[in-house]
Records
---
Amino acid sequence: MATASLVAQNNDWEMVIGLEIHAQLITQTKLFSGASASYGGEVNSHVNFVDAGMPGMLPVLNQACIDQAIRVGLGLNAEINTYSRFDRKNYFYPDLPQGYQISQFTYPIIGPGAVMIDLPDGQSREVRIRRAHLEQDAGKSIHDQHDRYSFVDLNRCGVPLLEIVSEPDLFSAQQAAALVQKLRSILRYLDACDGNMEQGSLRCDVNLSMRRAGEEMGTRTETKNMNSIRQIVAAIEHESRRQIALLENGEAVIQETRLWDAARGETRSMRSKEDAHDYRYFPDPDLLAVRIKPARIDAVRAELPELPDAKQQRFCDAFGLSSYDAAVLVASRERAVFYESVLAEGIDPKLAANWVITELLGALNKQERPLSESPVDALMLRELLEFLAKGVISGRMAKDVFAQMMSSGKPAKTLIKELGLEQLNDRDEITAVIGQVLQAHREQLAAYRGGKDKLFGFFVGQVMKQTQGRANPGLVNEVLKEKLKGH
Ligand code: ADP
Ligand code: MG
């Protein structure tokens, strides 16, 4: 990767990254109001008086958000704080009608935790989570509809977010990407967040500083506004180069908030970094502190699904998969369900994993289609692998049939019939074909018997040719050996 070599050239600069990830929680209604929390909708149609900051309106905590936060906390192996509190973070912005954001500053609902990330070299590493807190989202200012006016859409105002803050435990763009991927996967397994980055349900701020090996952490910048993992990687690469250039030049990195400009592929200064005290945080007097009883945590824990790490371990143990293959298969719940539905008596789980990863996901990737739109569903793939396992078709043919299944959506059974591909397993029929082949190639037969062993392959090839590749190769070998020995 370009950055890695650049870092190496520049006297062992090391990047240090900590992420702040905002996950929009899946709930019917907003954090403190009964308005719909769903994405989109007619402009300003999901807004009630609380969201619009009308005088005298009081926030009422949505209990569903607390349960979602607990789920995420458990999914991050984190402490669930039985006492937490809401604070006001004061600032003016046109899309924040209250004049403050209700957040959790001093007492977040989720304390320290840890997440395992899977790196491309097959290694796994733990990344510490510092905390996660509940807060309201802001609305959206619209600047591109009129040459003199800006508009505001408050639909998103008050939608529940969980901000997950990592420790600065990441040392490359790839590791940062791996953390986002892993968090997204966990959140989706939990049904806590849909993880849709383009729609903004998962947003990530990148804190990055550079240091020379062994030194203390340097001054960091915080980059916002990336809406895909690819852009996060690009922003990190750009920002690390920018900081190295400054530092090599003897200049200082200024602690500030920067914006990622995707069109130009660069980060740009947005505002100098504000400190916590600038926001005049104070406990929100309209809201009581949150106390969570241990029984409630237990109840949520009892309902948790099997999470990616546990599933990955089970796939390794039960099916003998490599850690890497298992990680690919558990990356989403949908994939894992697909894989397990392909498995059946008589099908080798490792072979099935190979088919799902290499053939199916490979083909879908080429067509840029999600698994949910695959023309071949799990049961269709299972049927194909059963034909293969029973020897009805060869491995080579299975690949051809699969390609046709992908393009036509027809089941394996139909295609095998249509294409006349059934493997020839009839010993008598194969024996007859071999007889014909030997008759037709007397010269080669004599040469073989005279010691030219290599001609064995020639005879196999002729038999396969005669049967359009349908003859069971094992059986051909066996019968051919007998025939060549005898007479
Ligand atoms: P603040 O609360 O002022 O936003 P924090 O110290 O709480 O700042 O850190 C916010 C995020 O920045 C965390 O994800 C943390 O891991 C990361 N971070 C803190 N210091 C550094 C640094 N020097 N370099 C890179 N990341 C950092
Ligand atoms: Mg911050």
---
Amino acid sequence: MRPVRLMKVFVTRRIPPEGRAALARAADCEVEEWDSDEPIPDKELERGMTGAHGLLCLLSDRVDKRLLDTAGANLKVISTLSVGVDHLALDEIKKRGIRVGYTPDVLTDATAELAVSLLLSTCRRLPEAIEEVKNGGWTSWNPMWMCGYGLSQSTVGIIGLGRIGQAIARRLKPFGVQRFLYTGRQPRPQEAAEFQAEFVSMPQLAVESDFVVVSCSLTPATKGLCNKDFFQQMKTTAVFVNISRGDVVNQDDLYQALASGRIAAAGLDVTTPEPLPTDHPLLTLKNCVILPHIGSATHRTRNTMSLLAANNLLAGLRGEPMPSELKL
Ligand code: GLV
């Protein structure tokens, strides 16, 4: 009998059990994993990638030309445990004929839920209010105290009415939102019809929205999209929420807009960099609520993502159709 050549798979972090088990069952693969909840050091990543046929990585692993060179010609599939793919050097990957798997759809509900939680926490000032209870700032019921902004009768502007943007709009509608606006690469009349959402320019969205929600992907076209000009055009009572990627926002401009009262508040699930240093100026602002990139963080969603990422990887290595392959 000819000895069977196992395909080498490298996994850059301990992943949830369903995906891990699926990889462990793959008799045609030899799986090596960075068996830790902490990020893999560069040297270990380079070592693990050398000669690998498949890589299962996270959104925090930068897969650039240098790493692809290190991996060498064996590398056939990259499977990322994320819907975002901005950490992957897609041009280089395409040139080398490497297939890419990702995890859309399965995280849409969890991410939309988080976006709504963050929006409500920010506009109704929940972290600030909780802090006041703890530090003795709650001295009486005060008609003028801790007032925020509500969704009822409001206009919500969504930057990127993709799967997650639509799921957010669907959840916000029952709160009594009066009008939805959206912007993006092109109008999406079919998707927008459910919310009677109007396709508008970025400036119109900034001027007319009470809430701005960023749910687009990070691309060269969206990098730095929300900048000084954009914040200048927003209402002073408006609330800005970003659940996409930190780099869609010019963070210095956002800081200025919040610190000067140019806009009312911001809720961010994503920042630049991640993690945000604990001495970052944004963390000194009461009107900025920051979460540690937990959009998809429910037990079930992360487990489902890990299984999908494992199945994408295995299908790609076996030359089969992947459950979720990125078109390159
Ligand atoms: C989360 O940000 C993801 O891209 O999955």
